Amino acid sequence: METKIVKQDAFTVVGMKYHGKSTEGEIPKLWGALMGRMHEIQNVKPNGLSYGISDNYDEATGAWDYIAGFEVTAVDEAPEGMVAYEIPAQTYAVFTCTMPTISTTYDAIYKEWLPQLGRERADGPEFELYGPTFDPNDPESQFEIYLPVK
Hints:
By secondary structure, this protein is an alpha+beta fold. The chain has one domain (4-148): Multidrug-efflux Transporter 1 Regulator Bmrr, Chain A, CATH 3.20.80. Helix content is 19%, strand content 40%. The radius of gyration is 15 Å and the shape is globular.
């Protein structure tokens, strides 16, 4: 699996949050709801990037927080039903995948890549970065997974 290591500056995302296991398609539904409300988010950076942030995984229940959102230049106030979330400056391993390969990519990251290269996952959120050309309706459309590493 090809990967690159990058240092990422801190940034802030405003979006909608889900907490659970996403067994019933809750994350795609969250994205659909966010797209219908994105006009409510102030100060969105005009870079065409969106983020799917995963954090606070609970090993006992298998649930985690997932935030679908957009990078902002400043947060005056998050719209009702939305959250502002700060991604810390950190070093990340970056992996490219597609929607049909997202599960196998995450499995390979944790079961193969980290153990083989002797890297450890650092504390903090991981995130999916969707560029301006990403098309969720195209199974070949690529995006990147950012995993914090030490």
